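#lab-general

N.A. 3:47 PM
ok so I finally got the sequence cleaned up, no stray characters, all 321 residues accounted for. can someone with queue access submit it? mine expired

B.Y. 3:52 PM
send it over

N.A. 3:53 PM
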Amino acid sequence: MGDCTRCGERPSYYTRRYSGESLCAACFKETTVEKVRRTISKYGMLSRGERVGVAVSGGKDSLTLLRILHELNSGSGPKSELVALTVDEGVAGYRDEAIDHARALCEELGVEHVLVSYGELFGFSLDQALDWKDDRELSSCSMCGVFRRRAIDEAAVKAKVDVVATAHNLDDYIQTFLMNLLHGDVERLGWLDPSTYDDNFPVRRVKPLTEVYEEEIALYAYISKIPFQSVSCPYMHEGLRSDVRDYLNELEAKHPGMKNVLLRSALDVTSKLSKGDPSGDGVAPKTTVPCGKCGKPSSMGVCGVCRMTEVVWQHTKYSGK
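B.Y. 4:20 PM
back already:
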């Protein structure tokens, strides 16, 4: 391989096919960190002095996010205070290893670690909630996502943070965008605008990895020798997202840079939709009302967590019925 196109001193290690850059390991890491820094600055995601909760599952994305935010926080001037927020969904043979990795990195970096579980919050584990999987119409990811979002909010309140940073990457963003299109959920597209948030929720959420390919996050973790979850979630290949993921990967392999193009298009669309249209022809910004059961913010009368919890207790043997 030839020399690194950035520093010109070290041999190239990785080629970004979408940009034509051939980078050495050091320059690859530097440019990845810089990309995250620019994303944070562009959308005003974080401010110095804030107490930042980093959602750390123990996978490559979240551990890389924690490492990068810790590096960005090590510069001169006022510092932010990082707190790792980990959710134990209760998946046998999967979650324990991830929690160990999260705990180990927090100890290495000197970051406070807050752990919450589905069991303590909802009264059942994800495995128990999905015990009736042969009877349900929802995918496992759809169900888990409802509970996980609430669990992160609860962890954020427990840790008293100002903002939560999640490790959703470029691939996650465009997958979600396409899934909403395929489901006909046009209104939800406006909710994906990274420059806006719903101030009715406990803390705002930001996605600093929005402009980084999942493949490059994995490489960053490998080069940085970050131990991460070695086993995939046993429920990850159910539902539409898996098909969308495979399609986008195939498209990127044939046409390098297509994910970046789709991201730019998605960001443009979500930005326009999030602002609504005074004429009444556009999509109104996201609004919330208190849930009629638990009082938490909801886009309808009863929140998704309360609706889903009721379904779980009605269909699983753990209901006691």
